[in-house]
Amino acid sequence: MDFSYDARTEDLRTRMLAFLDEQVLPAEPVFHAQHAAGHPWGRPPVLQELKTEARRRGLWNLFLPDDRFGAGLTNLQYAPLAEITGRSPFIAPEAVNCAAPDTGNMEVLSLFGTPGQQDRWLKPLLDGAIRSAFCMTEPEVASSDAANITTRIERDGDSYVVNGRKWWSSGALAPECELLIVMGKTDPEGPRHRQQSMILVPRDTPGVRVERGVHVFGYTDGPHGGHGEVVFDDVRVPAENIIAGEGEGFAIAQARLGPGRIHHCMRLIGMAERAFDLMCERAGSRVAFGRPLAEQGVVREWIAEARVRIEQARLLVLKTAYLMDTIGNKGAHTEIQAIKIAVPAMAEWVIDKAIQTHGGGGVSQDFPLAELWAHARTLRLADGPDEVHRASLARRELRRYQNT
Amino acid sequence: MDFSYDARTEDLRTRMLAFLDEQVLPAEPVFHAQHAAGHPWGRPPVLQELKTEARRRGLWNLFLPDDRFGAGLTNLQYAPLAEITGRSPFIAPEAVNCAAPDTGNMEVLSLFGTPGQQDRWLKPLLDGAIRSAFCMTEPEVASSDAANITTRIERDGDSYVVNGRKWWSSGALAPECELLIVMGKTDPEGPRHRQQSMILVPRDTPGVRVERGVHVFGYTDGPHGGHGEVVFDDVRVPAENIIAGEGEGFAIAQARLGPGRIHHCMRLIGMAERAFDLMCERAGSRVAFGRPLAEQGVVREWIAEARVRIEQARLLVLKTAYLMDTIGNKGAHTEIQAIKIAVPAMAEWVIDKAIQTHGGGGVSQDFPLAELWAHARTLRLADGPDEVHRASLARRELRRYQNT
Amino acid sequence: MDFSYDARTEDLRTRMLAFLDEQVLPAEPVFHAQHAAGHPWGRPPVLQELKTEARRRGLWNLFLPDDRFGAGLTNLQYAPLAEITGRSPFIAPEAVNCAAPDTGNMEVLSLFGTPGQQDRWLKPLLDGAIRSAFCMTEPEVASSDAANITTRIERDGDSYVVNGRKWWSSGALAPECELLIVMGKTDPEGPRHRQQSMILVPRDTPGVRVERGVHVFGYTDGPHGGHGEVVFDDVRVPAENIIAGEGEGFAIAQARLGPGRIHHCMRLIGMAERAFDLMCERAGSRVAFGRPLAEQGVVREWIAEARVRIEQARLLVLKTAYLMDTIGNKGAHTEIQAIKIAVPAMAEWVIDKAIQTHGGGGVSQDFPLAELWAHARTLRLADGPDEVHRASLARRELRRYQNT
Amino acid sequence: MDFSYDARTEDLRTRMLAFLDEQVLPAEPVFHAQHAAGHPWGRPPVLQELKTEARRRGLWNLFLPDDRFGAGLTNLQYAPLAEITGRSPFIAPEAVNCAAPDTGNMEVLSLFGTPGQQDRWLKPLLDGAIRSAFCMTEPEVASSDAANITTRIERDGDSYVVNGRKWWSSGALAPECELLIVMGKTDPEGPRHRQQSMILVPRDTPGVRVERGVHVFGYTDGPHGGHGEVVFDDVRVPAENIIAGEGEGFAIAQARLGPGRIHHCMRLIGMAERAFDLMCERAGSRVAFGRPLAEQGVVREWIAEARVRIEQARLLVLKTAYLMDTIGNKGAHTEIQAIKIAVPAMAEWVIDKAIQTHGGGGVSQDFPLAELWAHARTLRLADGPDEVHRASLARRELRRYQNT
C-alpha cells in the first residue's frame, strides 16, 4: 500500500497546480460575473477558454482509467489531481473534462457501450463537445433502494418506450446537454437486482420534458445546467440504445457509483483544503477585540482540528483508491462506503468553521465557502444517504462475527 | 417564574394559530410563485393581503411592549406568538408587522425618538405602510466589536454628514424601504462606548447608494428586500435626525439588540417545530428497504433528540423573557447571550436532521427546510457570532469566582 | 407552570445550603479516609453523625410526597433541594435519608404496602435505621425489556419460592442492608405486563447469596454497600410478602421508576454545578503558558457552554416536576424520558470539561470529578439505556402524525 | 509512503497474534484474580510466565529501534505489533517488555546514557529484570509547560541534590521498580529550554519517599505499580548520574515523548479494535425488544462509524510512523501532535459505544471496556492535554500563511 507519487503523477500534479493558480482561480470572478449576465442554465464563455487551455496543457480526461479513451491513470494516481480540481470545484473539474455526471456516463459507455454507442456518444463527450445527464433518482420514492424505482422501459417492437419521472438529473437544463442515460425497470417482476436496465435517450427525443431545475440551498447550479426534473412521456428510442442488455441496470449502476463516489471524495478533500486556506488567511488578517483571530484559542482549535480531520480523510481516500486499483471496486466496497460516510461530513465541518471565521462574509457570495458548504452537505445525501451506507457497512462488519 | 399563558395570551395564541393554518401556510406556494414572477426585491402581492387580514384579526404589532404604540405585551406573552410566526418565518412575521429589522427600528423610535421623529417615521412603520433598514455591520471590520466601526457621522452646521460602507442592511433593496437607521462614529476619540451615534437617513437622500444584495447560501431574501450593501457618500441630513443625541449609539444598539435577539430565538423555536413536523410526517410516509423511516432506529433517535432539544431551548427562551420582563434587559444579559448561543444551534441541528430525512428533497425548494436551515445557520453569526457571546458569558461567570 | 420557590421551599433551600456548606463538604475527606481505613462495604462513621445532624435540622425524608410518612413536598418543591444534595452526591443524599435505592423502596412501600409491611419495613427505613436493595436487573438479559426477566417467584402453599440471579442490586453488600425487594415472574405465560410481581425478601433468608460487588469504572461504591450480584436459590418467604398482589410487578416498577428517574436528574444538575464550580475555580488559579486558563479561549467556551447546558437541563427537570405534580407520572411520561435522555449526557459533558481543566488531577481521587463522571456516565444506562428511552419517546411523538 | 508489511513484520505479526490468542487473552482472568488476591502494587505471577514465553517466541524489546539493544524495527514495522498488544493493554505490552514508562526510559538510556549508565540500568531493564519510573509531572503546576517545573537538581561537590514533588510517576509503587529518572531544574535562570536536566535516582536512595498511588477513575493500576506521588527530600546522587549533561533535560524529554506518544497511539488502535470486537459480538448475541441489537439501527450506526474512525486513525498513525522513520521525530512533529489529538478521542468514542452496547456490564469489571475507557480518556491528558497540542499544531499551520 504505497501512497507515494510516481513520476507521472508528480508531473501531472505540478501542471495541475500551475493550471489552478494561473488560470482557474483568477477565472472565478469572471465565471460568476458572466453567469450572472448570461443564460440562467448556460455555461459562462470563460469555461470554454479554460477547457482549451487545459487540453493544451495535457490536463484532459484524467479520470478515465481506460487508456484507449482517457489518461489511463489508476485511482491512486488520479486522487491528488482530482483533489486539486476540488479547490475550485465549480470550474476546474469541467475545465479538465473530469466533471460529474459526464465522467460517470463516459465510464459507463467505455465499459458497457457498443462500438456504435461509443462512436455516437462517448467520442463527443471525451472531446467536451457535448454534455450529458444521468437520470436515476425519482422524486416519489426513496431511490437509494433500487427496488423502489418506478420508471418503466418497455420493449415495443424495435423500440423501447420510457415512462417515468426523474429528478436531480444534473446538467439536464444546459443547452449543451444532448444525452440522457436513464435507469428504469424492464422486468418489474424479475429478481430484485435484475429488474433494472439503462438506456440512452437523446435529449431531443419527443416526450422528454425537462420541467424545472431543482435548487440546492438556494443555488441553481445554473452554470452547469442545473439539476433537472425530467418527465419521460412515452419516449420511444431504438432498441439498440439499451446499454449492455436488459437486466444489467443495477450492475451498471454499481459499476458507475464506485468511481463516482471516490471522485466526489477526492474533490471534497480539495474543497476542505480551500476552506482551510481561507480560514487561516482570514484568521491572520481579521482583528477582533484587539487581537487577530489567529491568536484566539477557539479559532486555533478549529484550525488544528481541521488539519487533523482533513489528513485522516485524505489517507482513507488514498487507501480506498489503492484497493480499487488492486482488488477492484467490489473488493473495496467497505472502503468506498467508509469514505462516502467520512469525507462529506469532514468537509462540511471544516467549511462550517471557515464560514464562522469569516463572519457574515462566510455565508455570502463574496467567498466560495457557502456554496462549497452546500455542495458538501448535499453529498451526505447524493449517491445514497449516510444512513444507508452506514447500515450496509455495519451489516458487512457484523457478518464477520456471526459464528463467534 | 410562571410560564403559564394568561387569558390574553391564550386568546392571541388561538387566533395566531388559526391565522397560520388558514391563511399563512396556504399562501406559501403563492408567495414563492409571485416572487419568482415579479421584481427580484419586491414583495409578493399576497403579503399585502395577509397583512390586511392579520390586522383585521387583531394580530398586529404584537412585538411592541409600549402600549401607546403596539400591543403592550410582555416578552413572556409575546414568546408563544412569535414562535408561531416562526413556523412560516418568511411570511408570518411580516404579515403581522412583527418582522426584523422593522421591529427593532420601531422599538428604537418608540424608546428614543422625539415626537417629531415618531410622527414622521414610527407611525408609517406601525401602519406597515413603509419599511426600514438598519445599517450597522461593516464589511471591512469585525463589527461584533463596536469599537471597530469606521463609518463617520460628522456635524456640519445644522446637518450631519455621513460617510461609510455598511452591509447586511436587511430590506434595503426593497422599493418600500424608505428609512435607514445608521450607526457611525461622531467622536472617534471619545470613551469606547460613547464614540457612536445613530441617525435617521431617508433612503432617497443624495449620496445613499445601495450597491447590491448580499446572499445567504444562495438565497437573496428577495421578497424582503434582500440584504443591502449600502454606501454613504457625503450623505447630508438635518441635525435633528440624530437619535437621542451624540454618543448614544452604543446604548441604543444594546437596547435594540436584546429584544431583537430574543425575537429571533422565539421564531427559531417555531422553525424547529416546523422542521420537526415535516420530519415526522416524512418518516411516517416514506418507505425504504421495506419499512417506513419511522420504524428505523436512526430516524427515531433524531426525532427523540429533536424533541428533547426543542423543549429545552423553549424553556430557556421563556425564562429569558420572564427575566427581561421583571429585571430588565440588562439584568437578563447572561440569559440573552445563553439563548443566542443555544437556540440557533438547536434549530440548525433539528433542521439538518429533517433535511436528511427528506433525502434530495430536503436541500431543494420543494420543502422549506433548506431555506430554514440557511436562516438558522446565519443566526449563529448575525447579532454577534457565537464565539463572542460565549467569551462574554464566560467572563461574567468567572467573575463570580474571582475571590475564591 | 410556575417555577418560583414558595416560602417553604425557600426556607428548606436555605437550610439545605447551610447544611451542605457547614457539614457535608467538610466531611468529604473524612468520609473517604474512614472508608479507606474501614470495612470495604461499610458506612463511614461520619455518615451517622451527618444523619443525626440533618434530622436535627429538619432535613429528613424530603423526597416522600406522602405526608403521612415523609415531608409531603411536591416534586417542584423537592427539585432544588435534591439538586443541592447532588453537589456532594456520595454523602448528602443519604445524610438526609433521600438516597436511592431506599427512596424508591420507601415509595413503593408507602404506595402499595400493607399496614403490616409498612410497619415492619417502611418505618425503620424512614428512620434510617436499616437499608434496603432493589433486585430487578439480571445479568443474562437486556433488562430494560421487562418481558426478558427470568427470575421466578412461585407460589407454594403459604409461601413464595424465589429463584434467579440479579445484579446491580445497589447497597446489597452493606451490613445495614436488611431488605431486598425482588422483581420476578409469577405468571410467565400471562399478558406481557401482568407476568411480573414484586416481593419482599429479608436479606438473611436462607438461599439468598450476595456473591460479589459489581464495580463502576473501578469504583466499588463501597461506602454505600456496593452493587450486589445476588443469587436466589429456592428462597422461601411468606405469601404475605408479595407487594400489592400477583401481576402487579410491572405497574409497581413503573410507579417506582418515574420518581427515581427525576430524583437522579435533580441530583445530576447539582453534580454538574459542582463540576462547574471546580472548573471555574481551577481556571482562575491555574497558569499555563503565561496566562490563567480563565483567559484562554477554549476554557471560556467550555464555561459558557456548560452554563447554557446546565440551565436548559434544569428547566426541563422543573417542567417535568411540575407536570408530575399536576397531571401525574403517567401524563409526564414523555418529559420523564426526555430528562432521562438529556440530563446525564449534559452532566457527563460538563464534568468531562471540568476534568480536562484539572489536568491529571481531574481523573484522580484528589477531586470528586472522576467519580462524578463515572456516576453520570452510568446513568446513561441505569433505569434503561438512552436508546430505549429515545425509541419510546419517538414512537409516542410519531403517533401524533399518524393520521396526517 | 508505503504502508505494506514487509516479510519481517508479517512474520512478527503472525507470531504476535498467536501469542495474544494463545497466551495473553486466556491469562486475563488469571491476571485479575491473582492481583485481587495479592499485593496491591505487585505484579501477578502469570505476568512473569508470559514474559518468559514471549521471550521464547522472539517477541521482546520490539519497540527499540537501536538494534544494539532491541529489535531494531522501524516505527512502521513496530506499529502493527504494538497495535496487537493494545488489544490487551494491561498485560501484553509488559509481557513483551514494551510497556511504558520503561520503554521511554530504555530509549533515553540507549540514546543518551554513558556506557556505565547503560551497563548499570539499561541492561536489567532490557532483560525485564527490574522496572523503572519517570518523574516529570508535578502536582502544583501545569506541567505541560516545562518552564513551570519547580523540582531542583543542585550540584554539590561530586553529587547532585534533588528536591521536589512529582506525581503520575507510573510504576513507582511496584516492588520491582529500582530506578527513577527525574527531571528538574539545574539552572532556573537559564534560557527557557536549557534550565532543565534529567538525572538517574535509584529508588532506594535516602530521601526518596513514594507517598501514595494516584488513581485513574477508581483504578489504581496496581498490577503495574500504580502511579506514584514521589517526594524528593535532599536526595543525593553521584554527579555521574546526570544524563547527557546539565541543561539537556528539555531536549531529552522531547526525544522521549515522540516515540512515547506514537506507541500510545498504536496501542489505542488495538484497544479500539478490542472494543469493536466486543461490541459486534454483543450486538449479535443480545436480544432486546424481540431483535438482536445487531438489527437495530442505532447500534449499526455505531458499528459503521467506529470502523470508519478506527481506519482513519490507523492510517494517520502509520503515516506518522513513516515520517518519523524517514524525516525524523522533529520533522514529524505536526503528525505526532495530530495523532495525539485524534487517536485517544477516537478510542474513547469507540469504547463508549461498546460500553453502551453492553448495558450495565459495560461499566463493570466483567468486560475490559470500562478500564479501557479510563485509559483512553486519561491519554487526552497524559503527555500534554489535547488543547496544548491543538494550539501548537495550529500555530505551526498558521505560520505558513503569515506572508499571504
Automatic annotation (TrEMBL), chains A, B, C, D:
Residue span(s) of domain Acyl-CoA dehydrogenase/oxidase C-terminal: 247-396
Cofactor(s) needed: FAD
Stretches assigned to the Acyl-CoA oxidase/dehydrogenase middle domain: 133-235
Keyword Nucleotide-binding: no
Gene3D superfamilies (UniProt xref): Acyl-CoA dehydrogenase/oxidase, N-terminal domain, Butyryl-CoA Dehydrogenase, subunit A, domain 2, Butyryl-CoA Dehydrogenase, subunit A, domain 3
Domain of life of the native organism: Bacteria
Domain called Acyl-CoA dehydrogenase/oxidase N-terminal: residue spans: 10-128
Coiled-coil stretches noted in the UniProt entry, renumbered to this chain: none
GO CC, one annotated term: cytoplasm
Molecular function terms, GO-annotated: acyl-CoA dehydrogenase activity; flavin adenine dinucleotide binding
GO BP, sorted A to Z: fatty acid beta-oxidation using acyl-CoA dehydrogenase
Annotated keywords: FAD, Flavoprotein, Oxidoreductase
Family matches, as PANTHER family: ACYL-COA DEHYDROGENASE FAMILY MEMBER 11, MEDIUM-CHAIN SPECIFIC ACYL-COA DEHYDROGENASE, MITOCHONDRIAL-RELATED
Subunit and partners: Homodimer.
Family the entry assigns: Belongs to the acyl-CoA dehydrogenase family.
Protein name, UniProt field: Acyl-CoA dehydrogenase family protein
UniProt source species: Streptomyces guryensis
